[in-house]
Amino acid sequence: MRSKPTSKPRPGLYIVATPIGHMDDISLRALDLLASVDRIACEDTRHTRKLLDRHGIETRLLPYHEHNAEHMRPAIMARLAHGETMALVSDAGTPLISDPGYKLVRKAIASGIYVSAVPGASAALMALTLSGLPSNRFMFSGFLPPKSGARRKALGQLAAIDATLIFFESPRRLAASLADMAATLGVRDCAVAREMTKLHEEFRRGELAELAAHYAESGAPKGEVVVVVGPPAGAAEYSEQFIESRLTELLQSLSVRDAAAELAAETGIARRELYARALQIGGEKK
Fold first, then answer.
1. Which of 57, 245, 247, 265 has the largest CB neighbor count within 10 A?
2. What is the distance between the alpha carbons of residues 176 and 147, in angstroms, rounded to a whole number?
3. What's the CA gap between 32 and 16, in Å, rounded?
4. Which residues contact 169 (CB under 8 A, 6 or more apart)?
5. DSSP string spanning 124-148?
6. For residue 241, what pLDDT band results from cuts at 50, 70 and 90?
7. What end-to-end distance do the CA atoms of the chain give, in Å?
8. Is the pLDDT of residue 95 over 50?
9. Band of residue 286 on the pLDDT scale cut at 50, 70, 90
10. What's the CA gap between 185 and 77, in Å, rounded?
11. Number of Cβ within a 10 Å radius of residue 131
């Protein structure tokens, strides 16, 4: 049995991770803290109350989410300034990942208020570790724009990043988003994680185009979705002959800068390297 906290934590703001699905995926330290703070700021009071009830915690709740954040932030800051101890939680996982919590943390830090955290579950990191894709360098990119044009533009800005990419995505947009990734990022390995830690947890792995075709045919899946996309092919995989030939082709219709940017997006090779090579090719052609 979990013992009750023996002392009240230091006044300030505590960022506390909560389960992403399975209700038991929460640390003993997190439970002790949630039981001992003055209040808990949360996205959905009904959702957080279920977690607290499961563990016999009666701490008062304050709603803090994207729709009321501008109104609630000054009130929360006033409580913190008067010495209250407050925890910040999200509906699932680690707060500040695709939620308005970071603005509260920035304000608290700027005001000299003590800020700490209790680590725990993270959907992005769980999807990465189980994807089978390189995890030594990764970038979390949150939700992509809902419309295809804006989504492809955003993906184009990420195309040359030499890292595994992690996205949250709506199930109903999954097939279209994967198709845009395939068109913009090229041939890459991918993993789609669904309902992690829950009864119907599923991981589907393959190339982007294959997964796009699968979800277009099978329809939108149910539950929370995380998409993990492997990094671009390394520069070593492209021969000098290929680079020169492709740049020469692109320079027929593009400026030196645009040609370098286009090939950087296709290959993952640093744009500055390709720009220098494109300048050289352009000079040789004169």
1. 247
2. 9
3. 11
4. 143, 144, 177, 225, 226, 227
5. HHHHHHHHTS--SSEEEEEEPPSSH
6. confident
7. 80
8. yes
9. very low
10. 43
11. 24
